[in-house]
């Protein structure tokens, strides 16, 4: 692949929220995870795990519990005199938080704590950082794997949409529904399917706005 081919994959990927009824195969999912696992990670710690939910009823349940938790937050806001904010939470954030509802697959991206010989032999004995930092390290590498997954999906003719709404609102409910290891963090969920739409290109900050070159 030349550079322009790769750049077109990066630039043409979109976050898609409407999917066709065409199924996604187990082989498709396995191929995407195969690409995800080749992401870089801190000292090759590979702090990622994935759960691919391909059961439509279970995806619907995850949607339902996300809405339930969102309405609880909205009701709590209203009780504190924040009626407008509570209504906006339901009207504006709700559809984004549950945009996976029409997807045939929902991938739960997990982050495991950073573990390595460096941590075991050096970092922990000298108390290099607080233990919570290692959870953050796991999240960083998990995000890199998630990006690999989404780019691979686009190259394969599939579409994705990364979301944190179900995590922010209903992570404790997800743990009751799915085999999530206790030590793992739920990083994000990714809707996966065949695109029914192609969203337009969103504005991006210019390179000069985000880059500082020091010579």
What does this protein look like?
This protein is of the alpha+beta class. The protein contains eight helices and four strands. It has helices spanning 3-12, 26-36, 56-79, 83-97, 117-123, 131-155, 165-177, 207-210; strands spanning 48-53, 105-111, 159-163, 185-193.
Topology of this protein?
Elements (H helix, E strand, L loop, with lengths): L2 H10 L13 H11 L11 E6 L2 H24 L3 H15 L7 E7 L5 H7 L7 H25 L3 E5 L1 H13 L7 E9 L13 H4 L5
Antiparallel strand pairs: 1-2, 2-4, 3-4
Helix pairs in contact: 2-6, 3-4, 3-7
The assigned structural class equals alpha+beta
Provide the gyration radius in Å: 19 Å
**How far do the termini sit from each other?**
31 Å
How are the strands ordered across the major sheet? 1-2-4-3
Assembly category: single chain
Note poorly predicted spans: none
Mean pLDDT: 95
- What share of residues is helical? 40-55%
> H/E series, N to C?
HHEHHEHHEHEH
């Amino acid at each position: 692949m030349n550079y322009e081919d790769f750049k077109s994959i990066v630039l043409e990927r979109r976050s898609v929220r409407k999917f066709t009824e065409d199924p996604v195969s187990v082989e498709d999912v396995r191929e995407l995870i195969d690409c995800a696992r080749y992401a870089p990670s801190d000292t090759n710690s590979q702090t990622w795990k994935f759960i691919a939910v391909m059961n439509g009823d279970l995806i619907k349940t995850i949607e339902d519990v996300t809405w339930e938790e969102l309405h609880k937050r909205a009701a709590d806001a209203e009780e504190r005199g924040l009626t407008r904010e509570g209504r906006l939470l339901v009207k504006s954030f709700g559809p984004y938080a549950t945009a996976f509802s029409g997807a045939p697959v929902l991938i739960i991206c997990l982050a495991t704590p950073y573990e390595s010989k460096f941590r075991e032999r050096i970092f922990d004995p000298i108390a290099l950082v607080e233990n919570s930092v290692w959870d953050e390290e796991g999240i960083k590498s998990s995000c890199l794997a998630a990006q690999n997954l989404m780019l691979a999906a686009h190259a394969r003719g599939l579409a994705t949409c990364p979301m944190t709404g179900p995590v922010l609102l209903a992570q404790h409910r997800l743990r009751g529904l799915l085999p999530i290891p206790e030590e793992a963090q739920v990083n994000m969920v990714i809707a996966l399917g065949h695109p029914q739409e192609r969203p337009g290109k969103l504005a991006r900050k210019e390179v000069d706005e985000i880059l500082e070159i020091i010579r």
